[in-house]
Structures are given as structure tokens and as C-alpha cells.
Amino acid sequence: MKLNKSDYLIIFLFALLTIIVGYYFLNKKITTQQKVIQLQQQLQELEERKKKIEQIDTDRLAEDISSILLGTYFSTSTDIEVEGVEIINKGDRKLVINHQEGYQIEIPGNLILNQSRRADALEFDHIDRVNDPGISPRYWTIMFISTFSSNDEKYKSWMQKEISHPLTTTTLINGEKFYKAPRIREEDQMIIVYAYYLIKPNKIYEIDVEADEEWLKYVETFKLIKQE
Which end of the chain is more exposed for a tag (fewer CB within 10 A), N or C? Predict the structure, then answer.
């Protein structure tokens, strides 16, 4: 059978169509495989990111966020740094040395120096309260130590009312005479504290501590040191 030109043309067109269709499906297959590989890589990257996120110390993350929002005077786990204040761990206790204000005191190990900006006003918070989302920061503090100038007439006037209270007593702590005045810190929560006042020629020291023997015994460790 002899083929004419039109037959050759039909055969050529059929072959060309076959090649085009074959290339299309082959290319589609390759593209699909590439997409599968890309998805697998993306899933692997997501898994790695998930692992990194899971490894983040959530307490530390909270501190970092809080430091950004509130400054560097907030912590959820460790003592913050305050200029002029040194803290030495001693097992179940800590020795707080306030070089700037000239005193030292021991505190229990479950309290942390927190929410404090300056050496003349130090707050010591209970770590369990800090990490309890149901407790407001205003109730974290167990002990508060502050110092005032003896020339601060407004403070002295307020303090005189405190130490003139009928229930105020005096006590000796390492040879220093303190006034010990009872006070209700928060009337709605009925948190009773004792305020200890040490009056020196140039400075007045005030220690506020919750009225529980667990905390009160640490006030007895207060000592004046050389101010730097």
C-alpha cells in the first residue's frame, strides 16, 4: 500500500500529539514529585520549629517579656540585680548585703529580690506566690526593707504616729534599738505585718514583714555594716 502525502502528514501529526501528551504527563509527574518533596521539607522545618518552641523555658520567656514591658526589676524565678545590693546563697537561706544603704540581713531561700528598682527600697517576694496566677503582685511580698533620710520630715511625721501606737514595743536586734509596730497592710485581705523602725542620726531603716514567726525570725539577723 502506497502512502500519499496526506497520510504522512496525519502520521506526523499523530506522533507529534503523542509526544506532546507524553511530555505533559511526564512534566506533571515531575512537578507533583517536586511539590511532595517541598511539602516534606516544610513539614520537617515545622517539626524542628515545634521542638525548639517546646525547649523554651517558659519561666524565662515570661521574665524576658516582663523585662521588656516592665523593665529589669521583675522576675518569676530568681533574684533580680539591683545596683549596690549583693545576694549570697547559703543553702536554705540567702545573705542580702546592701552595700549602698549599709546593712545586711538573711532571708529564707524561697524569697526572691523582686519588683525593686533601687537599693533604698527592696521587696522580697515568695516564689510560690509569684508563680500562682491567682495571686496579684501586690500580695507577693513577704518582706520590704526601705531607708529614708533623717531629714525627710514628712516621713518622720508619719513614722512618729506609727511608733506612738499603744501596741508598739521596742526590741534589741544585734545591739540596735528597733520600734516594732503592728499594722494591717491590706484591710480587704487582713494581712497583718510588723513594721520595724531603726532611727539613726542620718538615716531611718524600716523593715515590714508579715506577722508570721516563719518570717519574723529573719529580722533578728539584721546588722548595720559599713556603707560604701
Answer: N
Instruction: Measure the CA angle with vertex 121, ends 65 and 94; round to 5°.
Output: 80
Pick among 3.90.220.20, 3.40.1000.10, 3.40.50.620, 3.20.20.380: CATH of 76-224:
3.40.1000.10
CA gap 86, 5 in Å, rounded: 102
Largest distance between two CA atoms of the chain? 133
DSSP label of 78: S
Residues 6+ apart with CB under 8 A from 152: 204
* Strand ranges inside the chain, DSSP E: 85-90, 93-98, 103-108, 111-118, 121-126, 141-149, 169-173, 176-186, 191-199, 203-210, 223-224
Q: Give per-residue pLDDT as tens, 194-212.
A: 999 999 999 999 999 998 8
Whole-model pTM over 0.70: no
